[in-house]
Every structure is written in structure tokens, then in C-alpha cells.
Write a structure and sequence with these properties.
The structure holds two protein chains of two kinds.
Chain A: H1 4-22, H2 24-29, E1 35-37, E2 41-47, E3 63-66, E4 74-77, E5 94-100, H3 101-111, E6 125-136, H4 146-159, E7 179-189, E8 191-199, H5 206-226, E9 229-237, E10 241-244, H6 246-251, H7 260-274, E11 280-288, H8 294-312, E12 315-321, H9 329-337, E13 344-349, H10 355-363
Parallel strand pairs in A: 8-9, 8-11, 11-12, 12-13
Antiparallel strand pairs in A: 1-2, 2-5, 6-7, 9-10
Helix pairs in contact in A: 3-5, 5-10, 7-8
Chain B: H1 5-20, E1 28-33, H2 35-43, H3 54-68, E2 76-79, E3 84-89, H4 94-113, H5 124-142, H6 144-155, H7 173-181, H8 195-198, H9 201-219, H10 229-236, H11 241-262, H12 264-283, H13 289-300, H14 309-326, H15 330-335, H16 339-344, H17 352-362, H18 365-372, H19 375-380, E4 383-389, E5 394-399, H20 402-413, E6 420-428, E7 433-439, H21 447-461, E8 465-471, E9 474-480, E10 485-489
Parallel strand pairs in B: 1-3, 7-8
Antiparallel strand pairs in B: 2-3, 4-5, 6-7, 8-9, 9-10
Helix pairs in contact in B: 1-4, 1-12, 2-3, 4-12, 5-6, 5-11, 6-11, 10-11, 12-14, 14-17, 18-20
The chains are: A alpha/beta, B alpha+beta.
């Protein structure tokens, strides 16, 4: 049974969602606010909706309590952040809102004005979906098409001249009933693979990794929303590159020099072995502080990019995270070399707050 | 759906006992609901047929979570109506249900007999259903968004009513009569040479002045400060017809719910007094005593930072009954300063029961506390005031001074804890702007909310609105001109 309250409850949740959307930038940069719930859900804390009234300032009215204790005995702790904004009664309200990742991605898309991605390649996977499109003469009562049924009956009455416009009572016969019917519709779907490459050389600190992690989370969320099937591969590199699982990718602490070409080579290798560019939408993300080992290697990187990676992928995104040690030269070199290259997107990420814009740069092209 | 037999029987039994004790209530219809229905009904303030709005969804969300996490559980709900409606939670223990039934009858008695409820609509169940239907019609006609937006605005003004206006006829006819009489200076008859003695100059001057004042006053609108801000807005704000109707609905409902806020301590105290009296003297079986005690003590538990109205109310009723039984009142008792003698004071008057029935008829929380909250009682209850210590980030006991406690209690209760706001001038600086004034009684307004509320009033009034208030002991005018909030000090 549908309860009356469900409608109001639904509307309330809608309003909360609206608030999340308004505040999305904060949630994007502070990923720690999001709690993961199971595979498909996240929970987001939203401050309580307060209806403003003329009301007395609770800080100025004294509270009254009951119990033992002398003057000055503490009875309750203040608000956790202790910003002095406390009321006279303890307890501020936070509501946890649960969202599916899909909804979150949708919000991200709308807020960042991300275009939907137009997939390339062959339509590989076919899904089947029921669509109510047709009308039949038989079917379950729950699918009865009222208007059509009525029309049939009306037609009969008019033809047989029993229709009385003064008292227009139209009663359909059984054979006049019409029902909705469905058809299987086949929807083509495309596949995508994301490669994350990260520089884990000594110059990449925890803060830099956190930025990469946050950005990767949102990119993931968006691409998962765009493609039904997304595979994710992780590559880390310092002087040599290797493929790792997600946990290692985000948690490993390596050190050593930086040879970027090693990662590109490995990536190219994996693509050649597993993903035919004709059939796969390939996304490459590389995060580094831009401190490569010499010009020679940089040139090698360019070669690989030019001859294979850029050709095979939908997008190649290079995000340069600012670190106190890195020179950041790689970004400038790339920019110089590939001016006007459509598939290559460069982004400088100075700090957490820049993540928002960086995501927009990366995904704003709709490729 | 009918009640289970055991509740039906308990109901009959308890009803009879209650009537024998002198409780006098409307017919009461009990209904069993499960917890989810209970939450739903409670979200609508007891009226499942109320108009649709998200804030009920918000209440529901909170209650649902509260219930799921075991933070609270609603045992009962009573609706002030004739007949009374009461909801029982399905699945409670029989002894809980009996307790609740007894509790409910006492509430009904209070609704029926307390004078502050005498003007409430006793057909509110039907009335609110009609409100719901009307608002739904508006939604169909003007669109859900439009109506919701307007309701959001109204919600902000809900508390701007004058609870006393139901009892006093604030006449305006009188003023009209006065109009003619003040036009000329009244001179006493006298001979010329006596004139300066019989009608001395300063008398004439003072009269002239008061006439000037009267004339000036007449130009003011409203003539006297108007506390029923909602009514004023309904009558004078440039509203569309449907908006006027919605605002009227809000005002109706606000007045219906107001007495419940005004008598929270008394009403709960009264109900608790009677459920405990009825249960412990007549109804409880031996096997039920433990469960009863458990539930009852749960009802009366008090947190350190919050006064439990059930507890304060019932203790005060019992205290009064005891005092009037023993004659612990009046001049002789007050003036006795022998503590031991006072403690043993017993004149065996036996007037206690009679007294508390009288109190339940004529008092509300403010007058109840004001009249009967004594120093002795305050100490017995172990009460204290507390405040926030910013340095330590904690709440601490401030003191146990009787005066301070009583003052805070009353402060929290007066105008049921709401600020007093009046319409002072609806043609401010002759530009049709609205000028409101807070009668400041020592506590400032919550500033951020006050500013937002002004915005909402502006939505109704359409022209700039102002509120005269006090911030940190300085008179201040808050204004909103349709685009921005202003704040300026008022220099007199």
C-alpha cells in the first residue's frame, strides 16, 4: 500500500538532493565526507533543514537540568568543532542521505556540465529491455488502456447510434477492451577501459596521492555512469612500471627516480594484448609531479604517445599534481609538443580545491 | 478495525475507574496502529489527512530513523477532538496498553476542561481534512511548486500569533466613538475674570498636546500594536485569494496547536498523575508490577540537560495535592520560619484532590509554575541552571539558585518560549513599509534566522519590512528591502 507520507517523504529527499547538488564542490574536494555503503551506495552528510522563525537566541536563555553536582560540574560536551556557536542544548542535526553512485554521477554531470560521451567502435554488447509500445486485444487488467478502450466503445455507440449526448454513458464490452503490450527492444552498448597511471617516485607525497585518489574516484564514478561495462587497470611507476591492483595503487609507498616512458610502454603493451581499439573506448589517465628523468626519456614518451597511445585512446589525460620537489617540466614539454592535439588534455592540480576544475577539464570534451 | 478483546475490556474497566475519580472526558475512540503508521500519523501532528508538504516527510524521516536505531518510540497519541481519537501501538505489552489507556483518558479530560483549550475547534479532525482538500485543490490549480513555495514562506511565520486574542475581544468600535469627543479642548464654564484660574494655561496646553497626540495616533495604522501578525497579514498584505486562504489555514492550525504548547508540563503531568494513580491503586495485577514500573520510570526519566515535562508536571501536581491536603499554604504557613515545624505541618484539610482539579481547569504552564513552583519543591527536585563554557567546550552547571531557576523556567515558557512580535506600523515613513517590533524581555533574537524570516515576510508584504529589536543591549532595526538585509542601530 502506498502511504500518504511517502509522497512527502520523497519530496523531502528530493530537497536534500538539491542541497547536495548545490554543495557538490565541497563534496568533490572533500571525499572523506562520503561514506561508501556497499557496492552501489554512498552516504553523504547534509545539514538539517531549518525553517527560519523569529525565535529567541538559545545562547542567551539558560537551560535547566536536573541531577546532582556542584557549580561548574560539566554535564555535557559542546559541539565537536568547538567554534563557539553552541546553543543552550547539546546536539546539532546532521542527516545522512543515501545516494546511488549513479545519482551522484548524474549530479556531477549536471553540475560540471559534462557532456554525455559518444561511444566509438563497434556496438559490442546488446542488452534487452522491455518497452511498452504496442496495444493488444488481450492482456492482464492491470495493463488495460483506458482511453483506447473507451474510444472503441464510443465508436461502436456512434456507429450503432446508441450514443446519447445528453447522458453520455459509455460502457465498453469485453471485446472492446485494449491492453498495453510490450516489445523487447535491443539496445546497443559499448565497453570502456580506464587506465590509471601514477608516478610513485619519492617526490609524490601523501597529499599528492590523496589528490589522485579523489580525482580517480570521481572519474570512475562518471565513466561507470556513462558505460555499463567499465574495466579499470592500474599502473604505477617510478623508474620501472608494473601493473597493480586498486589497493596497491592507492596505498603503495615507493621511492626512486622517474622514468615515465616505462609506464607508457607497459600501458601500450596491455592495450595491444587485450583491448582492440576498434571495439573499446580507452581512457588513459596519468598523474605525476612532472619531474621526468631527463630529456631523452621525455622524447621517448612523446614517441609512444604519438605513434600509438594517442591513436588508440579516446582520451589521454595528464594531471600534474604540484609537489614541493617536482620541477613540473613534463607538463610544459607536453604542451609545447602537442599544441592543438585534440585527444590530449593537460591539467595542473595545485591543491585539493583544484580537483573540481580538473575533472571538468578532463571530462568536459565528451569523448 | 476493532480492538482486541483484552484492550476492549481494559478500556471499559479503566474508563469506569477514571469517571469515578471525577475525570470528565469526551468519548474516546482507540485505534491500533503499527509503528510505521504511528510514525506517519505523528509526522502529520496527529492528523493523517493533512495537506501535503515536505516538512511532514522530514519529521517522518527523523522518526523512522529514530525508531530504527531504537532512540525513541511513540507509545501513544491523543487528538484533541470530540470525540477524542487515540492511537495505540500494536505489539506493546498488555500492561503498557492499559497504562496508555489511562494516560489517554486523563489527556482527554484535560482537553475538555482546561480553559485554554475551551476555544479550540473540537471538530478539528474534519476541519484539517478540509484544509487538506483545499490545499490539494490549489496545488492542482496553481501547480505544486508555486503552492509549496508559498507554504514554505508561511511556515516561517507560524508562531506570529496572539494566543490571548481568542479570549479577549479587542474591540475597535470604541475608538470610533471617541473620535468626535477629542476634537475640541474641553473648557470649564467660567466668568472672564476667573477663566485663568479655572482653566489654567498648562491645563489647556496639556489638553492641546493630548489632542495633537490623538490626531497623530489616528494617522497610524494599525492604531494599536497588533500581535496577531498573521491575521494582520491576511487582512492587509497584497495576497492573492488562494494565498490568503492558505495563510488562514495556517493561522487556524496554529491556534489549534497553541494551547498544547502552552500546557505541555501540566497536560503531561496530569496524565501521568492519573495513569499512575489508576494503575497502582486499581488496575495492576501482581504479575504486571515490574513491567509497569519499568515503563513508568522510563516515562519519568530526566536527562541532565533537559527538563522532562512529564516528571516536572507530575511531581508538581503531587506536591500541590500534598500541600493542600496538609494545609501547607496561606499566610500562617508562609510566615512560619521554623523549618521543622513547617516540615511536619499537617492540618488534615484534605483539600488536595479538589485543588488539583481546580488547577487543571484554570492554569497554563506559566501560571502553574509561577504560582506553585516553590523553593522547597525546587530543592527537592534537585534542579539547576546550566550554561555553555566556551573555553572548555562543555555545558556546566551554573547554579542552584531558586530565583534563577524559576526565572529561567518562566522565561522559557512565556509566550510558549516565543518572542513577542507586534505590527507597529504598516505605513512606515509613509511609504507603506511594514514595521515590526519585538517587545524585548532580556533575550535577543537569533539573528540569522530573524533575517531570513524578514525575507519571508517581505515575500508577502511586497514592500520593505523592518523589525525593531535589541542586539547586545543596543536598539537595532533589521530591514529587508527585497534584495538585501540591512542592520542599523537605532539612536533615540
Amino acid at each position: 500500500m502506498i502511504k500518504k507520507i511517502d509522497r512527502d517523504h520523497h519530496r523531502f529527499k528530493q530537497i536534500l538532493r538539491g542541497r547536495i547538488r548545490k554543495d557538490l564542490k565541497r563534496y568533490v574536494t572533500h571525499r572523506e565526507l562520503l561514506g561508501r555503503k556497499g557496492r552501489d551506495y554512498v552516504s553523504i552528510p547534509v545539514s538539517h533543514i531549518n525553517i527560519p522563525h523569529f525565535r529567541l537566541d538559545p545562547r542567551q536563555t539558560k537551560g535547566i537540568g536536573q541531577g546532582d553536582g556542584a557549580e561548574g560540574t560539566p554535564i555535557a560536551v559542546g559541539p565537536a568543532n568547538g567554534d563557539g556557536k553552541a546553543g543552550n542544548a547539546p546536539g546539532e542535526h546532521i542527516i545522512e542521505v543515501e545516494l546511488t553512485l549513479e545519482e551522484l554521477a548524474q549530479m556531477l554531470g549536471e553540475e560540471l556540465e559534462l557532456p554525455n560521451i559518444e561511444p566509438k567502435g563497434k556496438k559490442t554488447v546488446i542488452t534487452v529491455k522491455d518497452r511498452y509500445t504496442g496495444i493488444r486485444n488481450a492482456g492482464p487488467e492491470s495493463l488495460r488502456h483506458f482511453k483506447r478502450t473507451y474510444k472503441e466503445a464510443l465508436k461502436r455507440q456512434i456507429i450503432s447510434q446508441t450514443y446519447n449526448s445528453k447522458s453520455p454513458v459509455v460502457i465498453p464490452f469485453r471485446e472492446e477492451r485494449r491492453y498495453r503490450s510490450w516489445q523487447d527492444k535491443q539496445l546497443p552498448e559499448s565497453n570502456a577501459v580506464i587506465f590509471y597511471m601514477m608516478d610513485v617516485s619519492g617526490s609524490m607525497g601523501d597529499e599528492q596521492k590523496e589528490i589522485v585518489r579523489t580525482e580517480a574516484f570521481w572519474i570512475d564514478t562518471w565513466l561507470h555512469f556513462q558505460y555499463k561495462q567499465v574495466q579499470v587497470r592500474y599502473i604505477i611507476h617510478d623508474a620501472i612500471a608494473r601493473e597493480v591492483d586498486q589497493h596497491t595503487f592507492f596505498h603503495t609507498a615507493e621511492s626512486g627516480g622517474t622514468i615515465i616512458s616505462s609506464a607508457y610502454k607497459l600501458c601500450n603493451q596491455i592495450i595491444n594484448d587485450n583491448y582492440d581499439p576498434e571495439e573499446w573506448n580507452i581512457y588513459l589517465f596519468h598523474f605525476s609531479d612532472g619531474d621526468n628523468w631527463g630529456e631523452l626519456d621525455t622524447n621517448e614518451c612523446f614517441d609512444i604517445l604519438e605513434s600509438s597511445l594517442l591513436l588508440k585512446s579516446n582520451l589521454f589525460c595528464y594531471g600534474q599534481v604540484e609537489s614541493p620537489y617536482g620541477s613540473g617540466q613534463f607538463l610544459y614539454d607536453l604542451r609545447e609538443r602537442f599544441t592543438g592535439e585534440d585527444k590530449l588534455i593537460l591539467s595542473e592540480i595545485q591543491d585539493k580545491d583544484a580537483i573540481y576544475d580538473s575533472i571538468k577539464q578532463f571530462l568536459g570534451k565528451g569523448k | 478495525m476493532g480492538l482486541p478483546a483484552y484492550i476492549e475490556n481494559a478500556k471499559k474497566e479503566i474508563q469506569k475507574i477514571a469517571r469515578d475519580y471525577g475525570l470528565d472526558f469526551f468519548d474516546t475512540i482507540f485505534e491500533m496502529v503499527d509503528f510505521d503508521q504511528m510514525n506517519e500519523i505523528a509526522s502529520y501532528g496527529g492528523f493523517p489527512t493533512r495537506y501535503p508538504h515536505w516538512r511532514f516527510g522530514m519529521e517522518y524521516d527523523e522518526m523512522k530513523k529514530g525508531y530504527a536505531y531504537g532512540l525513541h518510540k511513540i507509545y501513544e497519541m491523543v487528538i484533541n477532538n470530540n470525540p477524542c481519537y487515540a492511537y495505540l501501538l500494536r505489539g506493546n505489552k498488555p500492561v503498557d496498553q492499559k497504562l496508555v489507556v489511562a494516560h489517554v483518558y486523563a489527556h482527554c479530560d484535560f482537553f475538555k476542561n482546561n480553559i485554554w483549550f475551551s476555544k479550540t475547534n473540537r471538530k478539528m479532525v474534519d476541519h484539517i481534512a478540509n484544509h487538506g482538500i483545499r490545499i490539494r485543490k490549489f496545488i492542482e490549480k496553481y501547480g505544486a511548486q508555486e503552492v509549496e513555495k508559498f507554504i514554505d514562506t508561511c511556515l516561517s511565520l507560524e508562531n506570529l500569533i496572539d494566543i490571548h486574542s481568542l479570549f479577549i475581544k479587542r474591540t475597535r468600535e470604541q475608538d470610533e466613538q471617541e473620535e468626535d469627543s477629542i476634537k475640541t479642548i474641553a473648557k470649564l464654564k467660567s466668568k472672564d475674570y476667573m477663566d485663568s484660574f479655572i482653566n489654567p494655561d498648562d491645563f489647556l496646553n496639556s489638553q492641546r498636546e493630548s489632542i495633537e497626540k490623538q490626531k497623530h495616533k489616528k494617522r497610524k495604522f494599525p492604531e494599536a500594536p497588533e500581535k496577531d501578525v498573521l491575521q494582520f497579514l491576511i487582512e492587509h498584505a497584497p495576497l492573492k485569494r488562494w494565498q490568503q486562504e492558505i495563510l488562514t489555514i495556517f493561522r487556524d492550525e496554529a491556534y489549534y496547536f497553541a494551547p498544547q504548547g502552552q500546557t505541555k508540563i501540566m497536560n503531561e503531568g496530569w496524565a501521568t498523575y492519573w495513569h499512575s494513580k489508576i494503575m497502582t491503586t486499581k488496575v495492576l495485577t501482581d504479575a504486571e508490577v515490574i513491567d509497569y514500573a519499568d515503563h513508568h520510570s522510563g516515562t519519568l526519566s530526566s536527562g541532565t540537560t533537559r527538563i522532562n515535562p512529564y516528571k516536572l508536571g507530575v511531581e508538581l501536581f503531587r506536591n500541590i495535592e500534598d500541600r493542600w491536603n496538609k494545609g501547607k499554604f496561606g499566610k500562617e504557613y508562609e510566615e512560619c520560619d521554623d523549618y521543622r515545624k513547617k516540615k511536619k505541618w499537617n492540618k488534615k484539610l484534605g483539600m488536595g484532590r479538589e485543588k488539583i482539579f481546580e488547577i487543571r481547569k484554570f492554569y497554563n504552564d506559566v501560571s502553574f509554575i509561577d504560582a506553585f513552583f516553590t523553593e522547597e519543591f525546587c530543592h527537592d527536585q534537585n534542579l539547576f541552571t546550566y550554561h555553555y563554557n566556551q573555553v572548555e567546550n562543555q555545558y556546566e552547571i551554573a547554579n542552584r539558585d531558586f530565583r534563577a531557576i524559576k526565572q529561567s523556567l518562566l522565561q522559557n515558557l512565556t509566550n510558549f518560549g516565543q518572542p513577542h512580535i507586534f505590527v507597529e506600523d504598516a505605513n512606515y515613513i509613509n511609504r507603506g513599509e511594514l514595521y515590526l517590533k519585538q517587545r524585548h524581555e532580556g533575550v535577543d533574537l537569533k539573528l540569522d534566522e530573524a533575517k531570513q524570516t524578514l525575507r519571508n515576510i517581505n515575500k508577502l508584504w511586497d514592500k520593505p519590512v523592518h523589525l525593531e529589536t535589541v542586539i547586545n543591549e543596543g536598539k537595532t532595526i533589521l530591514s529587508f528591502d527585497g534584495e538585501e538585509n540591512y542592520e542599523r542601530e537605532l539612536i533615540e
